Amino acid sequence: MSEHDSLTVYPMMSLRDIVVFPHMIAPLVVGREKSIKALEKAMEERTEIFLTTQKDAAEDEPTEEGIYRLGTIAKVLQLLRLPDGTIKALVEGKRRAGVVRFLPNRDYLAVQLEEFRVEELSRSETVAYLREIQEAFTEYGKVKKKIPQEVLAAVAKIEEASRFADVLASHLPLKTDEKQEVLAAVDIQERLEVLLNRIYREIEVASIESRIRTRVKKKMDKTQKDYYVAEQIKALQQESGQPDDAASDLAELERAIKDKALPDEARTRVEKEFKKLRMMQPMSAEATVSRNYIDYIVSLPWRELSAGVIDINRAEDILDADHFGLAKPKERILEYLAVQAQVDKLKGPILCLVGPPGVGKTSLCKSVARAMDREFVRLSLGGVRDEAEIRGHRRTYIGAMPGKIIQSILKVKVNNPVFCLDEIDKLSMDFRGDPASALLEVLDPEQNHSFNDHYLDLDYDLSDVFFITTANNLPSIPAPLQDRMEIIKLSGYTEEDKLRIAQDYLVPKQLEANGFAGEDIIFNDGSVLEIIRHYTREAGVRSLERSIASVCRKIARERLKKDSKRRYRLTAKGVSRYLGAARYRFGLAEKADEIGMATGLAWTPVGGEMLQIETVLMPGKGRLTITGKLGEVMQESAQAALSYIRSRSLCLGLSPEFYQKLDIHIHVPEGAIPKDGPSAGITMATSMISALMQVPIRSDLAMTGEITLRGRVLPIGGLTEKLLAAKRGNIKTVLIPGENERELSEVAARIVKSLEIILVENIDEVFEKALRMPEGDKLFKNLPPVGSFCAETVDDASNVRH
Questions:
Q1: Percentage of the chain modeled with pLDDT above 90
Q2: If pLDDT is split at 50, 70 and 90, which confidence band does 552 have?
Q3: Which of 10, 207, 380, 772 has the most CB atoms at less than 10 Å from its CB?
Q4: Which DSSP category does 111 fall into?
């Protein structure tokens, strides 16, 4: 590569989607004003023009940055003006050149160029490269079959390497930027290698295209062949009197439609669809869609019902045999059966069983089906976020199907099953729709007699279906959906309940599942209680069943290892041998009364829990610190409790300025677990007043209730679960809001009798019951009514607690 002694100025024209190479003659149609003037300038002065390519073909006025710097100096051979004002030009590429700088010119683009001189390769290298590229180009011509033989012959005669590369590049179907890459390769060896790589790639692409074309043609030929063969077979069958499979299939479908008991709307629709099916080719995609639609309609149990005889006594025995406790849901189900036995048709009730995991909600639904002598079907709604899962897809979509409701009815083949919609509180929604809204029609006894699935596009009667839904968390269910269901709450099991369930249900089940006879392993009551207390912490019995199964597996391994058939008797002390060290502390109640340590009761989705609340005092400036990953509501309860204590400081014997000299720190242990809710208000107030007055709190007492600034104790939720937690924790006395008295009737009598439950109306009553005052000492000084300030002054300063 060498540089000319002088730099020449040339008019320049930018090209769209074309690269002009040296030795290439190309016709151009020019319409832009500056390009026309550049051509005219070159023609008038009998000079040459510089041709380069735009980077973006859509630009009408490309800037300097939008034009490739390397192009071709060309000679204008011919100009022809067309009637529409454009010019048709014939140009011939001469030499490579690069732009040194752009010159200002109002009429056209002018540039100063640096021309490149190509140094040819040695004779042996040239021959080697030309032979290799010619062979590759000839092979490409055979595969592509679009390059004329004349071009192949002309290219083969070129002996100059540089010219050969440029002529060949102009005939290859390369992209504009790839052609520009070849043009920019000034070094001849680099240019030939780039070109060789491109030819090999085009050969591979052309081979793939050829294979695809051949494969598609074969498929088309096969389809046509199958059609002709099918027609010939049909003609032969008609000649020989043999039945036509397609015709016999349609005849069988027609008989099924006539024999099926269908509603009028469904019969009209299916007969119309069948007429269309007769006119379609059996092999067509439309025929498959139509046939599937008819099959679904004919297969659905429109009027088929289970003919079970309702026996109330038998149903009650089945429910009691399958499940221990659960009195309220059993009572409601038996009420429904009693009414069902007296009337011809009862609008199906929609029950919603709400309770912690593992208390038997789903298995209760199965027992209901057995008690009613009906089919049972279960649909899990956990994670369902597409409305089409409930209502189905319209038939216009490829692969459309009915929704899960219709598919489940089709599976059981009767129209009055017990239908369990499991985990209804786990529904979610996204851009595909809201499945909870789609369930509004399904779970409304006033509407579900005409449920419309998008795929069927027909009204289907779901009023005979006994729907039962299950959930862990009631607030997660949308309010309109709650309004359509009868909510039945299932509480967690007591320790006695779990012991009974384990001995009567879980132990026999796991012995059988693990291959033991009834007497091979004996779990005494002490061992089961040990597992319940120290290896599980749950409202239900799932973890308990898993622990029993784990013991059975370990004993099975031990028996096989020792080749022994001896029987095992598991005691409380022997549990740790199979289950390891205890995982939980049993009985969270503190052994001794402590200052600043109060026991609260909390509700969680898996049952009730005991909550320890600690308060410590430090010299400071009145800052209140609250820790333990508490939510906003719980933090506000602490603020309200402190405000109440400050308003009653004189009555409590506290210095009016106590909060200015002390920092108060409230902490709820197990800080990694989020906690929230207002029901810990009285517990935090009791913990603070204990720390301020240096009076211990009863360790055998727990409490729950929301506090107001006027000292009132407001009602709380989850009372049953909280009382169960207190009983599990060896608590003797529980303080609850007075307004929760009406809910005690819903709590099992044995739980109420096992606890001393005290109803409180205001926080002063809580302090009186919870604080263990020294004998002869009085908690309050000149007590005014609750909600009033203690305006009196304390005469004896020695009695004021700082």
A1: 13
A2: very high
A3: 10
A4: E
CA angle, corner 158, sides to 153 and 164, nearest 5? 105
Q: Does the pLDDT at position 795 exceed 50?
A: no
Q: Are 760 and 732 in contact (CB under 8 A)?
A: no
Active site residue 679: yes
**Residue in 679, 687, 690, 699 annotated catalytic:** 679
158 near 131, Cβ under 8 Å?
no
CA–CA gap between residue 600 and residue 589 (Å, rounded): 10
Cβ proximity of 336 and 467 under 8 Å: no
3-state secondary structure of 191: helix
Average the pLDDT over each of 71-75, 222-226, 536-540, 572-576 and give the range with the smallest value.
222-226
pLDDT value at 798 more than 50:
no
Pairing state between β 706-707 and 713-714? antiparallel
- Cα Rg for the chain, rounded, in angstroms? 45
Q: CB–CB of 783/698 below 8 Å?
A: no
| Cα 349 → chain centroid | 31
User: Taking the chain, what is the end-to-end CA distance rounded to the nearest angstrom?
Assistant: 98
State the Cα–Cα distance between residues 58 and 499, nearest whole angstrom: 82
Question: Is 723:755 a contact under the CB 8 Å cutoff?
Answer: yes
* Residue 138 amino acid letter: T
Distances in whole angstroms, Cα of residue 616 to Cα of each of 126, 767, 768: 94, 18, 21
How far is Cα 312 from Cα 572, in angstroms, rounded to an integer?
A: 41
Cα separation of 733 and 700, whole Å? 6
What local confidence, expressed as pLDDT, does residue 200 receive?
82
Provide the phi-psi class of 112: left if phi over 0, else alpha when psi is between -120 and 50, else beta: beta
Contact present, 423 and 380 (Cβ < 8 Å): yes
Percentage, residues of the chain above pLDDT 70: 88
SS3 sequence, 396-450? CCCCCCCCHHHHHHHHHCCCCCEEEEECHHHCCCECCECHHHHHHHHCCCCCHHH
State pLDDT tens for residues 662-705.
899 999 887 657 777 888 899 999 999 999 988 999 988 999 99
**Pairing state of beta strands 486-489 and 350-354?**
parallel
Tell me, what DSSP letter sits at residue 762? B
Residue 666, CB-side half-sphere exposure with 13 Å CA sphere: 28
Write out pLDDT tens, residues 602-649. Answer: 887 666 788 889 999 998 888 999 998 888 888 999 999 999 988 888
pLDDT at 801: 45
Phi-psi region of 559 (alpha: psi -120 to 50; beta: other; left: phi over 0): alpha
Q: In the annotation, is 637 catalytic? A: no
Q: What is the mean pLDDT of residues 220-247?
A: 62
Distance CA 719, CA 490 (A): 12
Q: What was the pLDDT predicted at 796?
A: 40
Q: Which residue is catalytic, options 361, 404, 722, 727?
A: 722
Are the CB atoms for 640 and 709 separated by under 8 Å? yes
> In residues, how long is the chain?
802
Residue 94: CB partners within 8 Å, gap ≥ 6? 22, 48, 72, 73, 74, 75
Is 316 strand, coil or helix?
helix
pLDDT of residue 779: 64
Specify whether the CB–CB gap between 13 and 38 falls below 8 A.
yes
Q: What is the pTM assigned to this prediction?
A: 0.59
Paired sense of beta strands 662-667 and 624-627, if any: parallel
The DSSP code for 445 is T
Classify burial at 149, counting beta carbons within 10 Å of its beta carbon; exposed 0-12, middle 13-18, buried 19 or more: exposed
Sequence-distant (≥ 6) Cβ neighbours of residue 685 within 8 angstroms: 641, 644, 645, 707, 763, 766
Provide the residue type at 801 as one letter: R
pLDDT at residue 130, rounded to an integer: 76
- Mean pLDDT score of the chain, rounded to an integer? 82
CA atoms of 246 and 251, how far apart (whole Å)? 9
Helix extents (H) in 620-663: 632-647, 658-661
Q: Which amino acid is at 465?
A: V
